[in-house]
Amino acid sequence: MSNASIGFIKDMPNETYHALDGVSKSGLDKIDRSPAHFKYSEQKDSTRAMEVGTAIHAAILEPVRFDKEYCITECKARTEKAYKEAKAIHGGELTLTKQEGEKVMNMCEAVHGSLDAMKQLAAPGDAELSAICIDPETGVQLRARYDWLNENRIAVDVKKTQDIRKFGKTVETYRYHVQEAVYRFVYKQITGEDLQHFYFLAVEEEAPHSNEMFLLDETMLEIGNYYFRKNLRTYADCLDSGKWPHPNFGDGIIEPSNWELNTYENNMEVML
């Protein structure tokens, strides 16, 4: 682990960012499951889906860098000789098969055809901008990495999705409202100002790659702030005590969900 200067840091390699002291939103997700899950988690090697996701981000947010660094081959599989030769030159994470490359470019084209998205992405700003601050309440170092932060105090976070109609549920499942709370907090600690807007740019992975710029309402952000502070205080308490407890299941009694209960009651009514 290592420390870095407080504030915004441009061009920080992803590996360096993840090696910094403190906690990020992904760490708070583990804390929310249980402190033990945070304590014993390990940095996992990136999967192919993660590498393609990084390529999508680069194509959308840093097209000049994408064109310079990435190689889209004509190969259908990564086992082909031509792919392996390209990989030896560019590296596996920067070398794409024909199918991967087509998906990345089609998603990029769909986003670049969106007036709402390009209004924010075309404004001067920084991609993959790392940020570090100290939480004044707990003394904990927080870190965040903005997909896109422009000079108008507007952040854009790119999210792949399968069905844009269900993105609201995705926000709850993956705690994106907590992410926004963290990123807004870090920004204000560094600049003394509030972010004007925080957009989630959701892009469907499959054609026609429908995409939309989403804003969370005040209630969602209030809930996100609540869990952000709750998880951060838990993390700070664990640091102080040196104890990282496992999940607490209370009395261990499992009750039916509302869906299970409603289904049962409806079936009973039909039988009667």
Structure description:
The protein is an alpha/beta fold. It has one domain (7-241): Lambda Exonuclease, Chain A (Alpha-Beta Complex). Helix 4 packs across helix 5, helix 4 (48-61) packs parallel to helix 7 (98-112) and helix 10 crosses helix 11 (218-241). The chain has helices at residues 14-18, 25-33, 35-39, 48-61, 63-69, 81-90, 98-112, 115-121, 167-173, 176-191, 218-241, 258-271; strands at 7-9, 71-72, 95-96, 125-134, 141-150, 154-161, 197-204, 211-214.
Features:
Lambda Exonuclease, Chain A; six-stranded mixed β-sheet; two-stranded parallel sheet; alpha/beta
The topology string of helices and strands comes to: EHHHHHEHEHHEEEHHEEHH
End-to-end Cα distance: 64 Å
Low-confidence segments, given as residue ranges, are none
CATH architecture: Alpha-Beta Complex
Proportion in helices? 40-55%
What's the total helix number? 12
Q: State the strand order across the main sheet.
A: 1-4-5-6-7-8
Largest sheet: 6 strands, mixed
CATH topology: Lambda Exonuclease, Chain A
Strand portion, in percent?
Answer: 15-25%
What layout of secondary structure does this protein have?
Layout: E1 7-9, H1 14-18, H2 25-33, H3 35-39, H4 48-61, H5 63-69, E2 71-72, H6 81-90, E3 95-96, H7 98-112, H8 115-121, E4 125-134, E5 141-150, E6 154-161, H9 167-173, H10 176-191, E7 197-204, E8 211-214, H11 218-241, H12 258-271
Parallel strand pairs: 2-3, 6-7
Antiparallel strand pairs: 1-4, 4-5, 5-6, 7-8
